[in-house]
Amino acid sequence: MASTIRVRATSNGDITEVQALIQHPMDTGLVKDSKGELIPAHYIQELKFECNGKDVFVANWGTAVSKDPYVKFSFKGAKKGDDLKISWIDNKGGSDTTTAKIS
C-alpha cells in the first residue's frame, strides 16, 4: 500500500523547507451521512517530523484540521542528503510513516 504522506524537503544554506500533504478524512464527528447518522470522528492526533533522530516539528491535532492536511514549515540544522522521517497517529489507532531525503 502506498504511503498517505507525500513530502518534499529542500535545503538552502542553513534552512530546510518542508512541505507535506497527508491523505486523511479528518472527520470531525459532527457531520451526518445520507441516512442522517453522525459519521464518527476520525482524525490525526499526532504528526511528527524527525531529522537525524531529533524532533523538528510535532503537532497535536484535533478535529479542527481540514481533510487531507497540508503542512509547510522550515527548520535549521539539516543538510542535503539527511533523512527526514514523517509519521502520524490517528484517534482510531491508524498510523503511517515515511522517510524522505533532503535535497
UniProtKB/TrEMBL annotation:
Residues 6-100 form the Sulphur oxidation protein SoxZ domain. Pfam families: SoxZ. InterPro entries: Ig-like_fold, Ig_E-set, SoxZ, SoxZ_dom. Transmembrane segments: none annotated. This is Thiosulfate oxidation carrier complex protein SoxZ.
